[in-house]
Design a protein that fits this description.
mainly beta, five-stranded antiparallel β-sheet
Amino acid sequence: MKRIAMPTTILTIAVALSSVMADNPVISHRSLADPNGFVFDDRIYAICSNDDDNVNGYDMKSAVVISTNDLMNWTDHGDVFRTTRDARWAAGSYAPTAIAAKGKVYMYFPNIASGVGVLIADRPEGPYKDPLNKALVSGSLCPMQWCFDPVIFVDDDADKSAYLMWGGGTPYGSNFRASALNSDMISLKGAVTTPNTPNSFEGPFIHKYKGNYYVHYPIQGNSNLEYSMSSTSPISGYTRKGVVLPNPTLNGQNINQGNNSHASIFEYKGSWYMMYHDRRLFKATYKRDVSIDKLEYESDGRMKQVVVTSGMAQLRNFDPYDSIPAATMSKQSGIKATFDASSWTNYLVPQNSGSWIRISAVDFRAGAKRFLVGAGTTGPDVKVEVRSGSENGPIAGTCPIANTGSKTRMQTSACDLTGLSGVKDLFLKFTGVSGNANFAWFRFEPLPTAVERDGAREVSAMASTTAFTIFDVNGHPVRRILTESGTDPRDAWVRHGRDLPVGTYLMRSGSGEVVRKFIRTEGSGAN
């Protein structure tokens, strides 16, 4: 997409982010574990075990997807996979793994500890389909004590070869099995190997860096994460190298109750990261939480030990001028989320009056003039206060939320804003709530910029662009798109509309003319 040159007076509003630190754990309103991070459409996604399913033991039956593009503000997309809905043959779902490949997202999940299934989606947020309606790995392929903890790896060779590894429990050190996958990603190819992974306990993960393959895993005994390297294959030829993550400890205190961790490694925008779980927030064996820290390498390719921190620097300012899924935040108080499979929406659900969310380092630039919110409530006096700086900071506006008679019957509410410009921490504070309101999305509208106020400049800057607006079936604008002149509406939809919830949408041109109707099903279909 072409960039439009903007006046330098507008650009100077942005500020450096070096002092804005992300929080670990990255999600605090729910309990997640076993994060498998990967990159899709320039965002970090992680598929996680859902410890909200647990009570007095590990009883996970679902997987939750979270995502970010700045390491600070994370979107909770909800339990996009649940065995009772999407793979009814399976008794549960422990640590899943996922990857973007061949234009799809492939998720592999353990049927508790007795096999591995596979699911396919167009996007990490799902919905997912089960192409086999049975396990991909089971029976004789599961000689180890626990046939679980799969990891999917796609090589960077010309054929984009894919590999799967799984296993855990006894016999320690030889409890993993691995195989290449056929091009369909849902069937095994060739011999099954037993990688050399000394004292391995469970939870393998494979990645590649500068021609070398790495597999890391928690070891039996002290639950440190150790790793081995291979220069020949992702599923064989490994030699032990040492510890990459000691059992998570911060400021000299173990934050994992001395228990097991499970981690993934990936590259994003030139840096390498490890996502792992610990127990620093909930401090309970069966209620884990997800953290992220930086990973670095020695000059010979060995991995340096990851240093556990309370958070890293935010990568970029947050853009408020697009539809924001409501369950997006860097911090919260009194917040829960609930997933509605019928609309494929993860609702934000404030639990009590005064509940709030924070979105960090939001760049309002010249200023925001209006706040819009999609919500449903049975309450008579629900409001959203738009604040900055803190949950008790200055109020830029207050939005009353109309009583819709049902929490799942959405209606757009809006309010005018004042004094909201530059880069600020945004706080949305909810009043009059008691779990009686669902919030689907938020959106800000900007004040006219210097370019828009100057007709001559506007003609100059906008002559090479085309504007579209996408409306839902109720006539509410859900997304505005600015793209290069001459862009076909379908191309604009593919680039900017495919992540919208399932439903029917109309696209209008800048003049208001309806130019296309789109029906969002499981992918991005259009009529």
